[in-house]
Amino acid sequence: MAEVLVIGHRNPDPDAICSAIGYAEFRRRTGLPGAVAARCGDTNERIDFILGTFGVPAPRFVADVSPRVSDVMETHVLSVGLDATASEALTLMDNANVRVLPILDAERRCKALVSVFKTSKFFFPAEGRAWDSRRVLGTLRGLARTLQGRMLCAFEPDREDDLILMIGAMRTSSFGERLQKYPAEKLLVLVGDREDVQRLAINARVRALVVTGGLAVTEEVMELARRSEVSLIVSPGDTATTAMLCRAAIPVRHVQDEHFLSFHQDEPLNKVRDLAAGSAFGAFPVVDDEQRVVGILTKSDFLKPVDRKLILVDHNELSQAVAGADQVEILEIIDHHRIGSLRTQHPILFRNEPVGSTSTIVADCFFRYGVEMPSPIAGILLSGLVADTLNLTSPTTTARDVEVLARLEKLANVQAREFTDKLFASGSILVSRPPEQAIVADCKEYVESGRRFSVAQIEELGFDNFNRCKEGVCRALSMYCAEKGYYFSALFVTDVVEQTSLLLMAGAAEFLETIDYPEREPGIYEMAGVVSRKKQLLPYLTHQLARVGR
Q: What is the 3-state secondary structure (H, E, C) of 73-109?
């Protein structure tokens, strides 16, 4: 099932958080069980007060929704250990129809890769190296596993040997002559039920004797093998099959690719796509922070659709959206701000209404469609509404906000006036945070006439806190504007009691010269009776911006 994140803008205010929680609940109750409330910024003291009051957890924090390696990787990882044989690796690859396997240690860290291509070079030696086709490299225990045979007696079965394969398919005299040509301890002899050849090989003290065809071995031969310390294995396959399989007993570490490319599970797909495309490997281990393998990524995985979608609330501009929003599908937008320039690949539900808060629109969804609203959700939506409308005193307030708030008060069993007083007294951002954090606690980025700028708002009970830290705030605003490369940065400090504001400005001098409100101090302007960023301040700033371009 696709995960659908219901998420507000960066540096979220109470309305962004509350509308995300409320709309996720609404969509889960109306046929979208994968809807999850999310946020792409920190909460603040007032948001925490709201969540604590109504016993609702904070939305999930998601800093970036860009498709990640973990979104498309295969989590069921087929692998082999360091002691696996090539036969075991090839069997796994054949059964799963894959061409590469990671070789993992006991802590699931990738030591190398084993591939069909690399092993084929071992099984099919290059021209002029026919001798390699008789080379059997590995342990006797690994050989027995590869042959699916029975080890009747074994001496140092876990010792790795580099052996020469010899088939006893000739007269005894010829076989005896041939035995003399090689060091006996280097020989692996394959033979059927010819006891005379078996005895000759054992008496020569070869490293191991393999009896093919699953044929019986006499007690006398077994006793002779024990006395001579010759390992004895019975293979169920015929001689031709057994000879072919012997070479496949080689440990994978001898046919591995030690140099490989791996990716972290959280790396963006866009970042690793070119690296993967230019690599000779067809698969790439995916690791976590401890370098443990948690997945495998193949080149075909880049074609998979990412199973993550978004519903945007309280904004409709990509400059304000969670990072990566332009790389995933946006299903819906629920907002009460001006319509920006966001484009989508498909038609979507876009509900944009000129009301005081997005929480008003979300609550109306419950009411309009007759969906039951739990009391805590009613309290959450009430909080978003009164925070954004300053308890219906903002010029953005509409009759619809008044009507919805009255219904929410009954469902939440909360008196809005008393709750609003507690909400704005619950914490001052200017007191609880350093200036560089306070100025971006509720900050939005805009693009107008080709120029990028930011507008932030801080709501306080009076200007006392601001007056105590204004120098640090002004300095932080100038630094923020310069670091981001904005044409200007505005900070709107609002007194919710007296319903008035101060405007702090930093940026291009040619723009600051157009501000025609009374300048209280350099860069600080009095905006009596102005309290709404959306309906009053932003239209004013964009109008002044247009004047600069004339």
A: CECCCCCEECCCEHHHHHHHHHHHCCCEEEEECCCCE
